[in-house]
Amino acid sequence: MKIIDAHAHIYPDKIAEKATRAIGDFYGLNMELTGTPERLAEEGKAAGISRFVVHSCATKAHQVRSINEFIKEETALHPEFIGYMTLHQDMTENEMAEEVEWCIKNGFHGVKLHPDFQRFYIDGEDAQKIYRAVGDKLPILLHTGDDRYEYSRPQRLAAMAKKFKNVRFIGAHFGGYRCWDSAEVYKGLENVYFDTCSSLAFIGPDYAKRLIDMLGAEKFFFGTDFPMWEAEKEIERFMQIPLTEREREMIFAENLERFLHL
Length: 262
What we know:
This protein is 45% helix and 12% strand. The protein is an alpha/beta fold. Strands 1-2-3-4-5-6-7-8 form an 8-stranded parallel β-sheet.
């Protein structure tokens, strides 16, 4: 069965260990992997993953182009990588639009944002600049949820999906890390999709099945959140969800292939 990892972070070798450790500290998790491109490819391929959506987030506006250049270089070196760009809310709307155009010309397939790291509200005016600049040109993958913060509450994403109907949003972590009980806010929103990462270790297979049934198996993409979790273990957790073989095929690869026109 074909498997695509729809959510993986990568960092340049010289900062990968520090960046990985910072993620672990942020979430209170022991990080056993290091987020280098080579480690992602090695771990993923050993687990049976054939392609990977890769990205990294800018915590300052001046980092945006250098991060996007890094992702561009890594997708050139690794044909199995699918690049998502980053943006930062301190950029002007024109600067954002120009960066989007540059990234499209260089083969990027989406945008990745992390409101909790970048410290903006999903429904704030700074974020809405991004949605206007991106429009329907690329899908936007957002870290969503985390009950310790207000930035990325599911209700905020649902409100933006209703306002920006031309934008395709992906709510990471079943639409809300540690806020899974709020998933009902997404019902009926055709422009919101979801990935499975950083959730299955906490919610269990039956709860995951209920969320997938409620929101639609056709709206989900499998993801590992590398280097947060080992690919093999995430695949094992996903296989424990009582889905049909057809639903597994869709979530493992077919949904993302259709969504990104791969």
